[in-house]
């Protein structure tokens, strides 16, 4: 099979003009080209050779062999079993940051063992500074890895160059796991799994021991297994990222197609793959009027591996009492605000239900999300009881399948409703897919709303992504122009990030189980970013990132409604702090007045405004850290000055506290006003399995203070005890609502 370089047109030109460059081809040398023209074409061909080398990134694939053992490993972080020394080590890690392609400055060794039940991972992270050089800022599950020393492993268990599992830890033994889809275009770190890890710090660095049960993973039912594998290590004091198999900028280890090969696995089985997780809920609620309610409840979840690649999840009387409260926002726009999903049942395998490249690239578009799970069980800020549901998700051959059906109970004026989603994606070519989606909302009494469509996500070479979709809705008793479509193209390599897209949403498009804040529009956007690195010339700056972007939005008759031109410069420093300078010109045509505040309206008219913004984020691995944003802007027919200030204190990985203040001073002809939003977070980690967290927020617009305190003890893998206190009170001291909730879950593993 020919290398990709030989199939590229420019390389073929080089072969014809200078056959000794590639292969001897008789009769080509004197094909009518003068020496001058031959040299010109040779130069073009050599440029093509270099260009294709950069695009395809040909590199020798590394192979690691896992060693079979007959006795289980004691997972204690010591790596003192003699069998570890018999296993082949993965070494010679390569930098991605800061010096792409150069050898790691500190050595790392990874060995893999397995028995009939588990895959064992043993890691030596050598460090010339010893344990004193290690940085640990957090031990919560799914901790932010960029803020401290970190190691993680990628397993492409289907060897499909698209999907995988991530398992990571830090020197304090915290756990971090995730699911990868679309060759890194979709990541989900809200997935929790049964596995174990222990770490130990030494005078020569730190070491890791992991045990990952095969029943936690999904893989083909073959006697011999070939998986993809890669490892990443972050050395925080140097702000250095290294990988076993080289991952070039701008990508990360989630780029599954660049992983090495894991061999040696044979005769492994997933087992029965059946988990039952019941819960017991004991809430005490107090509302206005001093009414106190005690409403105990029970329910359960079931997880079953239907096949080696498909998982069935069942939930009965679903409850999310332990979920952290939303972080509040103040809305000074005429459109709906976006709040992210936090409920674990909807977060697991969420990447399968993403549509139209919504998770691809480096920016997440919120102009149109066909399936938005917060529409299920939440209405106008109220929680709607969920009677139960099911989800079938996973891989079947070349297909990615997602089926979801949830039934909600009636609540106040909201009747009982069924929400169903069917998602199918087919892998094509090396790293692309096509798919379809169908979403149905069926209300008791016969009303319905449906969304259906097709999408494709294509990746060419390494850096070029193209995605598009077509959608249509159907609503009971309504007809009209109810379609939407989008086309997006992007090029993202070490130096350039270029993106362009066009979106059209017709006036009657109505995705009731989606998110579309603005309808009846045609929107074109484009961004151009350059990422030069000064290197040794300015050693304290890692990267400059100048950017220009334009957003041009019209109605369906092509009448301009919004135009935004943005010029931005980001400077990234060697210690991971960063600074932004932004200038933004905006044009808005307002056809209808809207209420920005009680009894204050923005009148109909055309508005041309300019705003200036400067921001700074400090190194988040320090004991004291902060961020500052200053903005001055024209605001409709007035002015707005904004300040965002954040401060963090973290003396160690056990305790951390943060406070942020967002202040806006608005001057309008209809009147002046200010807004304040203060958010305070603090946490105390007793250990990697026991935490106390608090979120306290003050909103001047609502004149409220809300508190959310959560204690979480994971007494057994995926089995938890939660104690949650929620309170909402006015700034005058009156309690609007107060709740104390205890929740106990226990997982039965069959």
Strand segment count: 44
Biggest beta sheet summary: 24 strands, antiparallel, barrel
Based on the structure, what is the oligomeric state of the protein chains?
single chain
Name the poorly predicted regions.
1-57, 359-363
Quickly give the CATH architecture of the domain at 63-266.
Sandwich
Radius of gyration: 28 Å
User: How many H/I helices?
Assistant: 4
Average pLDDT metric:
87
Tell me what portion of residues adopts beta-strand conformation: over 45%
Q: In which range does the helix fraction lie?
A: under 10%
Structural class: mainly beta
The CATH C-level name of the domain at 63-266 is Mainly Beta
3D shape: globular
The CATH topology annotation of the domain at 63-266 reads as Immunoglobulin-like
Distance between the termini: 46 Å
How would you portray this structure in words?
The strands form 5 sheets. This protein has a 24-stranded antiparallel barrel. Helices cover 5% and strands 52% of the residues. The model is unreliable at 1-57 and 359-363 (pLDDT under 50). Helix 1 packs antiparallel against helix 3 (35-56). The two termini are 46 Å apart. Among the domains are: 4-56, no CATH class; 63-266, Immunoglobulin-like, CATH 2.60.40.1190. It has 750 residues and is mainly β.
Brief descriptors of the model:
750 residues, mainly beta, Immunoglobulin-like, 24-stranded antiparallel beta barrel, 9-stranded mixed β-sheet
Short structural description:
This protein is mainly beta and 750 residues long. It contains four helices and 44 strands.
């Amino acid at each position: 099979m020919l290398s990709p370089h030989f199939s590229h047109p420019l390389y073929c030109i080089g072969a014809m003009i200078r056959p000794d460059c590639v292969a001897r081809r008789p009769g080509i040398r004197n094909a009518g080209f003068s020496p001058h023209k031959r040299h010109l074409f040779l130069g073009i061909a050599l440029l093509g050779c270099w260009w294709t080398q950069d695009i395809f990134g040909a590199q020798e694939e590394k192979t690691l062999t896992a060693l079979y053992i007959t006795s289980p490993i004691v997972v204690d972080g010591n790596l003192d079993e003699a069998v570890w020394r018999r296993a082949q080590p993965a070494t010679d890690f390569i930098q991605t940051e800061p010096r792409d392609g150069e050898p790691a400055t500190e050595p790392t060794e990874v060995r893999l063992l397995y028995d009939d039940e588990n895959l064992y991972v043993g890691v030596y992270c050598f460090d010339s500074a010893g344990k004193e050089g290690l940085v640990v800022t957090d031990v919560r599950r799914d901790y932010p890895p960029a803020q401290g020393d970190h190691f993680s492993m990628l397993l492409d268990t289907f060897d499909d160059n698209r999907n995988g599992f991530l398992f990571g830890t830090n020197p304090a033994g915290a756990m971090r796991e995730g699911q990868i889809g679309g060759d890194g275009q979709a990541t989900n770190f809200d997935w929790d799994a049964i596995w174990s890890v222990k770490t130990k710090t030494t005078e020569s660095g730190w070491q890791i021991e992991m045990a990952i049960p095969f029943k936690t993973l999904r893989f083909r039912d073959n006697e011999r297994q070939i998986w993809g594998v890669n490892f990443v290590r972050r050395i925080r004091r140097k702000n250095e990222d290294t990988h076993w198999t080289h991952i070039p900028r701008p990508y990360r280890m989630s780029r599954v197609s660049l992983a090495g090969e894991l061999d040696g696995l044979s005769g492994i089985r997933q087992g029965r793959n059946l988990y039952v997780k019941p819960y017991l809920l004991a809430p005490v609620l107090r509302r206005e009027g001093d009414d106190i309610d005690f409403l105990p409840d029970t329910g359960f979840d079931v997880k079953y591996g239907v096949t080696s690649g498909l998982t069935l999840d069942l939930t009965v009387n679903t409850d999310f009492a332990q979920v952290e409260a939303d972080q509040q926002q103040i809305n000074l726009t005429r459109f709906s605000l976006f709040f992210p999903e936090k409920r674990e049942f909807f977060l697991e395998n969420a990447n399968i239900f993403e549509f139209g490249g919504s998770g691809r690239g480096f920016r997440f578009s919120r102009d149109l999300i066909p399936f938005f799970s917060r529409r299920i069980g939440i209405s106008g800020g109220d929680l709607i009881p969920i009677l139960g549901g099911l989800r079938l998700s996973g891989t079947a051959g070349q297909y990615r399948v997602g089926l979801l059906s949830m039934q909600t109970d009636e609540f106040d004026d909201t009747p009982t409703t069924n929400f169903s989603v069917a998602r199918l994606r087919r892998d094509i070519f090396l790293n692309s897919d096509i798919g379809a989606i169908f979403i149905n909302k069926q209300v008791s009494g016969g009303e319905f709303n449906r969304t259906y469509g097709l999408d494709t996500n294509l990746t060419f070479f390494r850096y070029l992504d193209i995605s598009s979709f077509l959608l249509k809705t159907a609503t009971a008793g309504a007809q009209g122009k109810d379609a939407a479509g989008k086309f997006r193209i992007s090029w993202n390599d070490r130096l350039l990030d270029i993106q362009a897209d066009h979106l059209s949403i017709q006036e009657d498009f109505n995705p009731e189980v989606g998110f579309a804040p603005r309808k009846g529009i045609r929107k074109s956007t484009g961004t151009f970013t350059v990422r030069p690195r000064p290197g040794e010339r300015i050693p304290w700056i890692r990267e400059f990132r100048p950017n220009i972007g334009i957003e041009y939005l019209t109605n369906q008759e092509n009448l301009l409604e919004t135009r935004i031109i943005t010029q931005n410069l980001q400077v990234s420093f060697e210690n991971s702090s960063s600074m932004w300078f932004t200038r933004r010109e905006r044009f808005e045509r307002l056809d209808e007045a809207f209420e920005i505040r009680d009894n204050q309206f923005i009148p109909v008219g055309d508005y041309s405004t300019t705003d200036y913004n400067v921001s700074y984020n400090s190194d988040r691995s320090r004991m004291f850290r902060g961020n500052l944003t200053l903005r001055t802007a024209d605001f409709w027919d007035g002015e707005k000055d904004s300040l965002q200030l954040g401060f963090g204190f973290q003396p160690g990985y056990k305790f951390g506290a943060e406070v942020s203040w967002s202040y806006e001073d608005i001057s309008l002809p209809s009147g002046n006003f200010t807004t304040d939003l203060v958010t305070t977070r603090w946490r105390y980690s007793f250990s990697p399995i026991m935490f106390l967290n608090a979120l306290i927020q003050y909103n001047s617009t609502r004149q409220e203070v809300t508190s959310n305190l959560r204690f979480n003890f994971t007494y057994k893998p995926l089995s938890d005890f939660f104690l949650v206190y929620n309170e909402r009170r006015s700034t005058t001291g009156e309690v609007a609502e107060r709740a104390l909730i205890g929740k106990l879950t226990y997982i039965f593993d069959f």
